[in-house]
Design brief:
Chain lengths: 305, 318
């Protein structure tokens, strides 16, 4: 060692070594690989400011962004029996559940809330993808049933926001039965002629897509969300060919006639409020209605009284 | 006959009987005795094997190529069967067969997944894996049945809905969802039978019925044991473990309250005696429809909806 190595080396290392970035402060966009500062992500509701990619939005943020002033009330869902099959793969399902609950602080993969949107009373059931991929078992089924019942009770529209890989395998046939169960639940809302709106977010697949998620009076999708029945890998291994560009994405579904619209996150709240108020034939709160400016006063036609 | 691995000891004995039978042409009494003795052994072995089939073995029996399929039941049980085709918007999907006919004298709308029984018919029926047009046809036929007050019978036997680009492009998820919705909406008696494989969404699309029967060795599951194994065990070699964990047998599902009754199969499975299997189901169907007949359509609809709305609530939580 001489003075040169002692002196220069740290500087060189500093140049070569990747900069240590504290976790959570920066997030890499999965689409364009740009690093995005967390404050910027918060401002854009988890939309990449470089490429417009819609990153997944945690369920609390989702509820906050929808309701007036970010205010809502969560409903405590009835607790149902855990692990009905005593399922065990490499790990016990009961242990997986316990770990996920500890990690997320949530009881299961759905949050039900009510509050006002544009002054309209609304019930929202939002999936939590962070809880076992948002998979649907009996507890999630219960969440949809409870949300639907509350909507009927309050004479409110119901908005369901799936973010789910599908049925929860560890609950076996009972998770499959949730497809029929949730279908009855949302049909009860529809029978009361209350609007049932589905906001499809990334991902909405499997048993969730093939039940209540595809039965909305209005189907709105977030840009770029994966929506479909069979998983892309399953399809690839069945047909043994590459899947078309943009396959099973929101825009593809719009093109195929499977959703009404694809709406960027920033416009979602306003769009939902507009749709709900149109369906319920009520005007939204005044501050949301931009009045057209240069409308001439009506001139009575000749001969009219 | 296609011999399953665990049936090999039985098949060997049967082979011996067959050999001896050729010798008895001469009328040797001792050989006849020996045949009788071996036959008793076969029956005993069949009985003991089939009394304790593992879930994975049941999966293999449920998929047995010579097991009677939907059209076998239709041919034997439905008079004046009049197939009806098409979804009226895209095409005709032969993975789902359907039509009007008479069961024991009364009109019925029969809808079933058909797997086919040889290479040609398997291709024709796409191995029983339906596309959206299949579920939309099913829906059309259920609605027609309801319109004319005709009861609906569905025969479920599918590995699942077809996973393909075209199926997705035409809205597989929506087609299945609507089919479930229609099952739960019609104001006529509806009976479903899981006759072989009840594969996931593709099965529940036809099986949200007032009465759900299941053959003794049929399976009904949210995902195939292979699919479950490759996701949760990260290798499809664990299919046996997955079959065990999924609780997909008729006996398990009856305990869970998901199906209403188990229909016994002939000794050694439906594939060993299809005629007897079909006749046994006929009796079970007759009593299932009798129980529902005479009840108001609105009440039947309401009961069906209550039944599925309860799945996962108190009854199952207990």
């Amino acid at each position: 060692m001489n003075w040169l190595t002692n002196y220069v080396r740290p500087k060189l290392q500093a140049l070569v070594r990747p900069k240590e970035v504290p976790e959570n402060l920066w997030k890499k966009c999965p689409s364009c690989d740009h690093l995005i500062f967390h404050r910027d992500l918060e401002k854009t509701l988890n939309v990449c400011q470089h490429c417009g990619h819609h990153l997944r939005l945690p369920v609390q943020k989702r509820l906050e962004m929808l309701f007036d002033d970010g205010k809502y009330q969560r409903i405590e869902l009835p607790k149902i029996a855990d692990d009905p099959l005593k399922f065990r793969d490499q790990k016990r399902y009961a242990d997986r559940l316990r770990d996920t609950r500890a990690k997320t602080g949530e009881h299961d993969a759905i949050a039900v809330a009510h509050g006002r949107m544009g002054g309209i009373n609304v019930v929202v059931a939002a999936f939590n993808f962070e809880f076992q991929g948002g998979s649907m078992g009996m507890a999630v089924g219960e969440g949809i049933v409870a949300a639907a019942e509350l909507a009927v009770l309050q004479d409110s529209p119901l908005i369901v926001i799936p973010a789910s890989g599908g049925a929860r395998m560890q609950e076996g046939i009972l998770s499959l039965m949730q497809m029929a169960r949730t279908t009855v639940a949302v049909d009860r809302v529809k029978e009361k002629r209350l609007p049932y709106v589905v906001l499809l977010t990334d991902p909405t697949t499997g048993g969730v897509s093939a039940s209540f998620a595809m039965l909305g009076d209005i189907a709105i999708a977030e840009p770029g969300a994966v929506i479909g029945f069979a998983g892309a890998r399953v399809i690839e291994s069945t047909i043994r060919e590459k899947l078309p560009e943009g396959f099973q994405r929101s825009e593809y579904l719009l093109d195929k006639g499977m959703v009404d619209m694809v709406v960027p996150r920033a416009e979602l709240r306003a769009t939902l409020i507009r749709v709900l108020s149109l369906l319920r034939n009520r005007s939204p709160a005044a501050d949301l209605l931009a009045l057209p400016l240069d409308i001439p006063d009506p001139v009575p036609e000749e001969g009219t009284v | 006959m296609h011999i399953l691995d665990f049936e090999k000891p039985i098949a060997e004995l049967e082979g011996k009987i067959e050999e001896l039978r050729h010798l008895t042409d001469g009328g040797d009494v001792n050989i006849a005795d020996e045949v009788g003795r071996l036959q008793a052994k076969v029956d005993k072995l069949l009985r003991s094997t089939y009394a304790k089939l593992t879930p994975w073995q049941k999966t293999l029996v449920a998929r047995h190529p010579e097991r009677p399929h939907a059209l076998d039941y239709v041919r034997a049980l439905i008079e004046d069967f009049t197939p009806l085709a098409g979804d009226r918007s895209f095409g005709e999907d032969r993975a789902i067969v359907g039509g009007l006919g008479r069961f024991r004298g009364a009109s019925v709308m029969v809808i079933g997944n058909e797997k086919g029984s040889d290479t040609e018919s398997r291709l024709k029926h796409n191995f029983g894996m339906a596309k959206p047009e299949g579920y939309r046809k099913a829906r059309r036929l259920m609605e027609m049945a309801a319109h004319f007050g005709v009861p609906v019978l569905t025969l479920v036997d599918t590995a699942g809905a077809y996973p393909g680009v075209d199926a997705e492009a035409r809205g597989q998820a929506e087609a299945i969802a609507r089919s479930i919705e229609t099952c739960l909406d019609i104001r006529v008696p509806m009976v479903s039978v899981i006759i072989g494989e009840g594969g996931s969404g593709g099965a529940i699309a036809l099986a949200a019925a007032n009465t759900v029967l299941m053959l003794e060795h049929a399976i009904y599951s949210v995902i195939s044991p292979e699919g479950c194994a490759s996701i949760l065990w990260r290798t499809s070699d664990a299919a046996k473990d997955a079959a065990e964990a999924l609780k997909l047998t008729a006996q398990d599902l009856h305990k869970l309250g998901v199906i209403d009754a188990v229909v016994p199969e002939p000794l050694g499975g439906a594939h060993r005696n299809p005629d007897l299997a079909i006749q046994t189901l006929s009796t079970a169907l007759d009593s299932a429809f009798r129980e529902l007949s005479g009840t108001d359509g609105g009440v039947l609809r309401a009961r069906r909806r209550e039944k599925f709305l309860d799945m996962g609530r108190a009854g199952l939580a207990a």
